[in-house]
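Task: fold both queries, return tokens.
Query 1:
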Amino acid sequence: MKQLVGLLFCLSLSATTLAQTPPSTKPNIIYILADDLGYFDLGSYGNPYNETPHLDSLARQGLRFTQAYSASPVCSPSRAAILTGRHPARYGLTNFIAGNRTDDTSPVNPSPWNPFLPASATTIAEWIRPLGYTTGMVGKWHLGNADSLAPWNQGFDFSRMIGKNGLDYYNYSIFEDSYKTEFVDNGTKYLTDKLTDYAVEFVEKNVSKPGVARPFFLYLTYSAPHVFIVPRGDKLKKYFLKYEKFEGRYNPNYGAMMESLDDGVGRLMATLRKKGLLENTLVIFTSDNGGVGLPELGPIPTNMEPLRKWKGHIYEGGIRIPAIMFWKGKIAPGQTSEQYFSNVDYFATFSELLNHPMPEVEMDSRSILATILNPKITLPDQPAYWHYPHFSNQLGRPAGAVRLGDYKLTESYETGEMELYNLREDMGESKNLASTMPKKKQEMAALFKAWQKQVKANMPVRK
């Protein structure tokens, strides 16, 4: 116990020292977000088909989490959680923008909800900019289209937001710092590559000389590998050649898309290396939610087994995501952590890192900095919550869940049925323990109901 207290004290001193150093030596933060990337889609997470050498190298040189979560099984709420450190239920932002599916056979209609992140919400970019940081957002925003809700009015100095045809990788547009300036592509530049171009441009603009940069926060949100599954043709051959070897289990087009995403991360890391910034940059790579495991706008993109279900569901396949962190000289190479956490926790982590308090509102974020800097540290168990009172495009139904320690409780908002699982023994959620552990079920249910009341969770409407 004394060793743990001492280590945490040292980490606190380290964070304080970072905050007191000159602006040029404050750590840069690059947060890379893939779209609908499944838990097993990277080689470093056990995928034998997709070729992701740069991300696998990042995992070997840094820290790989095995129990990272998104705060929602769909994209917009998950992104709101990342940027605000608050559960999206607090904003009533509980579905993806434009998500309005219903089910005539259900006893409920989906909950009324708020289809944007309010301009009043404080984003990480707005919070970190007064500390001397330049802020950049590149890629998918999906938190509201009004000018007041766009990234250039939510704290970002450099904004390159996907505009028209965001699902078409060869016919799209990018808004540059406003709706007045728009880059339009008509089949010439692959979208993933274009986003990488912008990210490299942002980093290079902040470098005054090798090893010296104005501190920056880059929120790089690729649209890949979200459907449509449209790859670059020059990357397809190798995946078709080995398709039969894996008995059709994997999607060649998806594999090629993953390779372009991986190449983009490789280019960005090469830029950091060239500019002498590896020792002063925390790089985080993760996904916004689980992968798509059914035919949606084409063939099945990916396979989530042995996890249960996929995007749009509150089971593990919809919310458990890869998370890799790299910081040369600060994070020891080859590390793995079983610490479970949600993407709502990044705000508090950056707050401790920079020794700067979070906004004075009720936050849901808890710092995991101690584990990042020393993966042998396991933080005390804390509840993680999920709330999805909607019908997803991936056939998910209104439901919620809570995890505490190894146990996870799910609740159907249509029937009220609750299921209980021990994730350490059953990550596939195949053995429902609700009837054999009624006391644990009751304990978890009370915890979940109290949380729903606390955040004023919007619920489905009975017909």
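Query 1 returned. Query 2:
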Amino acid sequence: MRPRAFTKLLSVFILTLAFEWLATELIFRLLVGNATEGLRQAVLWAGVAGALAALPLAAWLAGRAAARIKRVVVFAQRIASGDLEARLEMHSEDELAEIEAALNHTAERVSKGFHEIESRGNELATILNTMQEAVVAITQDGVVRWANAVMQRMAGTQIHIGRPLVHSMRDPELLACVRGALDRGEVCTGRASILFPGQVFEVNAVPLPGGGALAVLHDVTSIEDAQKSRREFVANVSHELRTPLTSIQGYVETLLEEENPTPEMTREFLGIVLKNAARMNRLTVDLLALARVENPDNKLKLQPCKAGVLMRDALAALGGIVKDSGVKLQSGGAPNVTVLADLDALNQVFGNLIENSIKYAREGKRIRVGAKLEGPEVVFTVQDYGPGISSEHLDRIFERFYRVDKARSRESGGTGLGLAIVKHIVQSHGGRVWVESELGNGAAFHFALPLAEQTPAEPEQDDPDQERQEL
């Protein structure tokens, strides 16, 4: 027994003896009167003996009660430290047992509520971490409280929990939105363009009920690029159409204003009008072709085809163009393997590449077309021996309306869309396209298509010196 409990028990025992002596004395004086002193002392000592006999029982009862109270104290300390699974053992049905039962019931409800809150918190964290947007929570003091996985992945070591947001994110638009949500309690929106190089984010900052704010960053880089591409595309189409239309309008107006135009003048002007009308028609055809190949609903009609047959059919279809150009077309052969291809689409690829080479191959007077097996794909090549392409143009040459030599391309009737169409068709086949060139050494346009077979046959090359000048 603890010293303090023993002292209390001894005090109670002394008070009990005193009360018993006073009660015995009073009873003897009232009832016995002048009884003998011996009898009074005997009764008194009997009471003392009875009290002494009851002392161990009282000590046991007091120790048991103190132990139960101690268990209640330990139980409360465990609950306070976070051990919500702690419970009191029930061994009796007295008043203290009712208190223990009430405490157990309270602990059960607290534990259940805590687990529900923890489960909802985990669900919310999972939802925020699986979002495509970056999310960061900020305290009222502007300190980063929490950031989801997307934000941590993008920011890397820049974002730190427990540090001010201004030390991690220095974009003024983002900080202004967060400050507006913190100070004015308003939903603020903005656009962050210098947060991460090359990326644009739409920022939405909202105040939180308990104080602080939540900022959501939505990556709109692709949308911005698409809008920019659309604006450039519309501007390029307008420019390409305006030039021939202006020419047609000018020559027609001149003919109408001339009272007696000579036949030679009329024929010359009508020839120019026809040339520009043909240019507009080619542009329209290429625009429709580009829209078709860029349409995600456009389905290719893929079928197995030998690489050599595919190349020979494409070259045969271009016989008239090659003959009129005066350029020799050489076949470099092809391996005896099979690819999956849309024949009409691949004919357009070969046609655009060869027509493009003819425009720049007049100096070399020949174009070489061939294919070779490289690992799991077949690489087709259209090579000219013209002036070549400088290195600064190689990365952009497959863009829509991009021209290396704008004046020469327009003079030859080019629309600037042929190589863009090639790129989209090849990529829709699961292939890739690229160009290799040096100034003065011609240009080689390559496109690769995956094999249709896992174990292709041995390559069988056609005669590399065979010429197809008039197909």
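Both queries returned. Flag for query 2: The first helix runs from residue 3 to 32.
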